[in-house]
Amino acid sequence: MFKFLLIIALISIYSKVSAQYYPLNDTIECMQAIGLATENGVPLDGAIITIYQGNEIIEWDEITNNPKHDHHFNINLLGNNYYTIQVSKPGYVTRSIGINTKVPDDLVISYDNPKTKMQFEVEVFKTKKTNDDDLLDYPIALIKYNNEKRKFEFDTEYTRKIKAKLGN
Predict the structure, then answer these.
(1) What per-residue confidence (pLDDT) applies to 29?
(2) Would you say the pTM of this structure is higher than 0.85?
(3) 93 and 139 Cβ atoms separated by less than 8 Å
(4) Nearest 5°: phi and psi at 135?
């Protein structure tokens, strides 16, 4: 009986020691997206910011110049998801930025390795008809994790291609 209790006690201790908690990257905030909607470099009052996680709207807000916003929008994003930040206003072309928060399994967000802060501007312009209106449905920029540099950054090649197709 003593051996049986000793074995149970050792198994219990071993399972508590070996069962460490590793947060799943899709449940931790890995990025803080801080954006500004502008027209000709000037902050745009009354822009509607819609945040999609996949195809589902998770947040939206009207951005104005008040103490809450100062024209900026700010959202914390979970790892291993795809987000679209859409900027719209009646009479303007809707613009969007795609953000892929897929991160390596060994990435641990902590005090020593804080979440990334990505700041960007989304330039909007008045609606006008062109032959390339379907190109305006694509995100103007993509942000993704660079495994070599171990940080989030803009996919500059994607942005260059989309701007070339749109004629800047």
Answers:
(1) 86
(2) no
(3) no
(4) -70, -25
